[in-house]
Amino acid sequence: MIARLRGTLLEKAPSRIVxxxxxxxxxxxxxxxxxxxxxxxxxxxQLRVHTHVREDLLALYGFATALEHDLFxxxxxxxxxxxxxxxAVLSGIEPEExxxxxxxxxxxxxTRIPGVGxxxxxxxxxxxxxxxxLTMGAIEKxxxxxxxxxxxxxxxxxxxxxxxxxxxEKALDKVFAADSDAMFETALRAALKALMRx
Length: 198
Hints:
single chain; alpha+beta; CATH 2.40.50.140; DNA polymerase, domain 1; Helicase, Ruva Protein, domain 3; five-stranded mixed barrel; 10 helices; 5 strands
């Protein structure tokens, strides 16, 4: 049973990615809430995984957070909700908003999710409601974006070089305001130039 994958993102398309782990490519289906924060092809990814096994099929479903994973497993436990519909639900509504809609019995919001009719929405609302306290405990902060990680890496490098954190932060504000996509070396060089100016 595969529970987690960490590797290189080989292919990326909405609802499906391929992750290379030590030379083996894993085809993983993902909700849009997991897909959008992913980096570009070639970047490192880490996913929580649900392995779905049937007689004629072995499918992997990947999630960026424990909340998405938890909600998916609770959704597929509901009668009439399979993995495809559970993935569609998580793609059609943010996980935190799904929790809120279930808690408030907001059937109208649930029926706005593509593929979810009134009966299914009522069933999801009814069957998930009693399980929400556990689900809410699984909320995680979203993974930092590439830009946030780059900024943190450059800040760490500057402070390791002896620059004060406040001065480094100000320099980085200017660097990333001028070029929000600046790579590590470019940003570090530009920040050093700014810090060396009298």
